[in-house]
Amino acid sequence: MKVLIVGSGGREHAIATSVAKSDRVEKIYCAPGNAGIAQLAECAPIGAMEFDKLIAFAQEKEVDLTIIGMDDPLVGGIVDAFEEAGLRVFGPNKAAAILEGSKAFSKDLMKKYNIPTAAYENFDDAEKAIAYLETAKMPIVLKADGLALGKGVLICNTKEEAIEGVKTIMQDKKFGEAGNTMVVEEFMTGREVSVLSFVDGDHIKIMTSAQDHKRALDGDQGLNTGGMGTFSPSPFYTDEVDAFCKKYIYQATVDAMKAEGRPFKGIIFFGLMLTADGPRVLEYNARFGDPEAQVVLPRMKNDIIEVMDACIDGTLDQIDLQFEDNAAVCVVLASDGYPVKYEKGHIITGFENFENKKGYYCFHAGTKFSDNGAIVTNGGRVLGVTAKGASLKEARKNAYTATEWIEFANKYMRHDIGKAIDEA
């Protein structure tokens, strides 16, 4: 098979690494890719939203399967475009990708089908939202309706903060058109857990759990980011939690989308909050999480191509999805100043330390080749250093040891990724 992966981040590098393990794959392409993916795949300088160019490339190279890694092209309808061109593609179509593309849609879906989530109201008028906040209980959560690179959520502790947040999202348009509509949501407390799943329109297979760290600074301080690190599995995702979610959340979501005439094929990412009253859905994503993919996929035993084929063909119920009985931790090496302002173009050294070291991975996120062929920083999140271990504590120790193998100017990371493990 020839496989094309669309995207350029650590998630796509993790997908490419899994695809490369498949005996069925002889050639991998990636568009646009990055310096790490280029070691596994032939990269093409085509943007993820350039649908016509991607289709022409897939046709020219006689690609057998295209895997869409990113949210923007999915919500924009790339799967529909590929299918119309007669090309086989993995991911939800535009009608189904709205599950991530509109928080207002997903909240309304959960309410309609009794899927447990936080109480909320949707607003498309800033003045009405502010009026609602005058009598609302604090703290409260404000969410831009559309895609905002994982950063469109504001947690407001006071009424003044909340009113300012409405202005930021709806009037100042900090998150662009994503803020035309806004969800105002009850603030929930508890452990956050991420659960990824494969879906074929009717059936769902749950992957192992993970836990992300969104804030930029140690102690969950600072601004929200795309993710500063993650670990898998979550010790807080117990058998009891799993049983509840299987009964009330996972299959219920698949059935709800089908009932709405939007059958979902691809990846559903369940962002869960484990509250005192039981698990609640925080959010849905319509693709692999980043950096969750970097700890979940290395632990998956199955051939990823076989699983994706089953999702497309509606035969997922025949797949026995299995994961290794171990753990993985990913620590993101970022550019100092992320997620606000940071420098690019710094040379990265130390990649050779990962060669032939089983259970250690260095997933590239924001990297590229310089004019003279050196690998340099090219983003806020630069690398995802991932390591496995027999236990979470061992995996955490291994991952932090491996962060010392890589050097670049203005390298920054959190030092408490997986610290919650010690409290489990």
Automatic annotation (TrEMBL):
Q: Which residues form the ATP-grasp domain?
A: 107-313
Reaction(s) catalysed by this chain's protein:
5-phospho-beta-D-ribosylamine + glycine + ATP = N(1)-(5-phospho-beta-D-ribosyl)glycinamide + ADP + phosphate + H(+)
Pathway recorded for this protein: Purine metabolism; IMP biosynthesis via de novo pathway; N(1)-(5-phospho-D-ribosyl)glycinamide from 5-phospho-alpha-D-ribose 1-diphosphate: step 2/2
Q: Which GO terms describe its biological process?
A: 'de novo' IMP biosynthetic process; purine nucleobase biosynthetic process
* Cofactor(s) listed: Mn(2+); Mg(2+)
Q: Does the keyword ATP-binding apply?
A: yes
- What EC number(s) does this enzyme carry? 6.3.4.13
Q: Which InterPro entries match?
A: ATP-grasp (IPR011761), ATP_grasp_subdomain_1 (IPR013815), PreATP-grasp_dom_sf (IPR016185), PRibGlycinamid_synth_ATP-grasp (IPR020561), PRibGlycinamide_synth (IPR000115), PRibGlycinamide_synth_C-dom (IPR020560), PRibGlycinamide_synth_C_sf (IPR037123), PRibGlycinamide_synth_CS (IPR020559)
- GO function terms (MF aspect): ATP binding; metal ion binding; phosphoribosylamine-glycine ligase activity
Q: PROSITE patterns given for it?
A: ATP_GRASP, GARS
The answer on whether this UniProt entry bears the keyword Metal-binding reads yes
Keyword list (alphabetical) reads: ATP-binding, Ligase, Manganese, Metal-binding, Nucleotide-binding, Purine biosynthesis
What SUPFAM superfamilies does the entry give? Glutathione synthetase ATP-binding domain-like (SSF56059), PreATP-grasp domain (SSF52440), Rudiment single hybrid motif (SSF51246)
Q: Which domain of life is it from?
A: Bacteria
Q: What's this protein's family per the entry? A: Belongs to the GARS family.
Q: What is this protein called?
A: Phosphoribosylamine--glycine ligase
- Species per Swiss-Prot/TrEMBL record: Eubacterium oxidoreducens
What's the source species' lineage? Bacteria, Bacillati, Bacillota, Clostridia, Eubacteriales
